[in-house]
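Morning, I've got a small favour to ask if you have a moment. The fold is given in discrete form, as structure tokens running alongside the sequence. I'd be grateful if you could look everything over and explain what you see. No rush at all, and the record is pasted right below.
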Amino acid sequence: MSVPNQIRDGDWTVATQDGPATWSLPFQSKGDTQSFEYKAKFMQYAANYTPLKNSLAPFNTPPTTNHEQLSTITVTRGGVPVTAYLIDESDTTDEGCGVVSFTRTYASLPSTRTEASTITYPFQFISTTLSYDWTSPPVAPEVAELPITVNADIVYEYSLTKPSIIYAPKVFSVFGRLVYIGSPTPLGAGYFVAEDSAIELYRGFFYQRKAVYVSWSQFTSP
């Protein structure tokens, strides 16, 4: 049985997009319809193919920086040009005639979003005397915590550079002295940060800072 010849037209010495790209919204279920991922299939001669590497040049001094300088493209979304960053390049697939295909995935820098949740917050009480008289501090003031389940707003922020940690307000009794750390850092009127923020890399390249905020009004008596 004979096998038909395959013919490839076009300049396959350079990566050439094959067909339209596909779009996805990774946080649509969380109410974010602006952040997107963009996937495009490319074809190229295997002999000419080199993965599109992100540059390490500006980021070669760990641990100050720990991810690559992202390659970018400009895509049009809603009639507006938007920068998208390379976050993944697939393995190649042999298409015959010395040509391979591969998929590059780009993503916008995700938008800041807020998600509703509940947390167990350790509400703190301070004793300044054995009789709980606040006018004269005792030799060894005590700090007690009461866990309370409260509503919380979880804020996710994204950046290309490492953000600072937001420290939650806390008080400790250390060798007879009260030590305070953190600050309320309000999200809005009447809010404070309830936990030290957590920082990690999202999709390997974007910094994500997660901060949990709680309203003061939940701790007041009705």
In short: DSSP finds no helices and 14 strands in the chain. The chain has a mean pLDDT of 82.
